Amino acid sequence: MKLTIRTYKLQLKHPFTISRGTRTEIPSLIVELQENGLSGFGEATENPFYKASVAAFENELVQKREIIEVASTKTPEEYWDYLYPHFKDNMFLLCALDEAYTDLYTQKKGLKLYEYWNLEPRNLPQSNYTIGIDSIENMVAKMKEMPWPIYKIKLGAKNDLEIVTELRKHSDAVFRIDANCGWNVNETIKNSIELLKLGVEFIEQPLAPTNWKGAKIVFDNSYLPIIADESCLTERDIEKCHNHFHGINIKLMKCGGLTPAKRMISKAKNLGLKTMVGCMTESSVGISAIAHISPMLDYVDMDGALLLKNDVASGVKLENGNIIFSNLNGIGVELITTIPNISLKK
């Protein structure tokens, strides 16, 4: 296999604010693994909260090129096990490599990824569309700009209930709330009472990820289901989430890719947890990978590419929340060649 590294600056349509800060662009790294005229693609985006930078991704890929570029005789599951000891401290990069290899492998098999997994793309969960923290006027405008059946509303401002109350006046869509660790225990329980009245489906990660004692109190007293995000990064976190959350939101970059995510979903279901896979403002490369695992899920959040001015790839699309698969095999992605690759490391 041949490794090619590409980096991009993904420009957002609107400044995107959560409880931890605001971003206007997302640096992204696209991994390409090529063999016999076929190319598999995977993605990792920069995230300061997790100390994940594109420059560090590039340097590590260059240093470990020989490890990556082995003959592609392994299954995706075997390749992930092979890579893990070398990338166990960088789940974001492991994710990009896992996606790319899985894409390449299933293309060689002449299969779409969901076919390789023997999944049926029927009765798929609809994806939400995310509304970042802003003035109420701007949040309403964003909803009107993108009419959608499900909205994820980012909260963690001083007037959270006022925001949701006003947004509800302008839409009868399902609301999901993501506080991104911005609330305390009492605030979460009190907010859950009012948010239930406002037609909210669930609350995602209201408390700090280390506050397990508080999570248990919220779990026992909330009027709405609580979904773990920052508290559930990798496979080892699933059992901790049991009886502390009602469900988990898996991020491919946090857990190391599609291969471990699939295991996490099965483990969570066995414990009676609801399952969701979310995105981290990726291009259509990362979003298309998520789509193929969606038949296993209760909820999905894969709107990342819709938030961009300049998607760098084509692939799976969303139409009014519904997943529309590409006709291509693998994860179904093609890069848009008119978008410049800014990487200096080939």
Report on this structure.
The chain has 346 residues and is of the alpha/beta class. The chain folds into two domains: 2-115, Enolase-like, domain 1, CATH 3.30.390.10; 121-330, TIM Barrel (Alpha-Beta Barrel). It has 13 helices and 15 strands. The protein has helices at 54-63, 65-68, 76-87, 91-108, 113-116, 136-145, 160-168, 185-197, 212-221, 238-241, 252-255, 258-270, 284-293, and strands at residues 2-18, 21-35, 38-45, 129-131, 150-154, 174-178, 200-204, 226-228, 247-251, 274-278, 299-301, 313-314, 317-319, 322-324, 334-335. An eight-stranded parallel beta sheet has the order 4-5-6-7-8-9-10-11. The chain has a three-stranded antiparallel beta sheet with strand order 1-2-3, with helices on both faces. Helix 8 links the parallel strand 6 (174-178) and strand 7 (200-204). Helix 3 runs antiparallel to helix 4 and helix 8 (185-197) packs parallel to helix 9 (212-221).
Topology summary:
Elements: E1 2-18, E2 21-35, E3 38-45, H1 54-63, H2 65-68, H3 76-87, H4 91-108, H5 113-116, E4 129-131, H6 136-145, E5 150-154, H7 160-168, E6 174-178, H8 185-197, E7 200-204, H9 212-221, E8 226-228, H10 238-241, E9 247-251, H11 252-255, H12 258-270, E10 274-278, H13 284-293, E11 299-301, E12 313-314, E13 317-319, E14 322-324, E15 334-335
Parallel strand pairs: 4-5, 5-6, 6-7, 7-8, 8-9, 9-10, 10-11
Antiparallel strand pairs: 1-2, 2-3, 12-15, 13-14
CATH superfamily heading of the largest domain: Enolase-like C-terminal domain
The CATH architecture name of the largest domain reads Alpha-Beta Barrel
- CA(first)-CA(last) distance: 14 Å
CATH topology of the largest domain: TIM Barrel
**How many structurally independent domains?**
2
Q: Which runs of at least 5 residues are low in confidence (pLDDT < 50)?
A: none
Give the radius of gyration.
19 Å
